[in-house]
Amino acid sequence: MFRKTSGLIGMIAGLVIVAVSLLADTLGIGTYPGLNNVQLAGILVGVAFFVIGYLLRRKKSKEKKPAAK
């Protein structure tokens, strides 16, 4: 359960990072008009968080099955 929860948090964090990076100029936190290197780096980091979170949620945890007697 911890893996699925942390994966969901990673996915949400990735989406937030991408959204903030894309909307930096609109939000007033951009230092240069247009898309610059810092925004591109933020987009890449956000996508990486999302992908890692997705892989964590997707991976099945090993469940112990009761041994047959």
Summarize the model shown.
This protein is an all-alpha fold and 69 residues long. It is 68% helix and 0% strand. The protein has helices at 2-22, 24-27, 37-58.
Q: Mind sketching the topology for me?
A:
Blueprint lengths: L1 H21 L1 H4 L9 H22 L11
Helix pairs in contact: 1-3
Structure, explained:
The chain contains three helices and no strands. It is an all-alpha fold and about 70 residues long. The protein has one domain. Helix 1 packs antiparallel against helix 3. The radius of gyration is 18 Å and the shape is rod-shaped. The two termini are about 30 Å apart. The mean pLDDT is about 85.
Count of individual domains? 1
User: What coarse outline follows from CA principal-axis ratios?
Assistant: rod-shaped
By secondary-structure content and strand pairing, the structural class works out as mainly alpha
* Strand segment count: 0
Rounded mean pLDDT score? 86
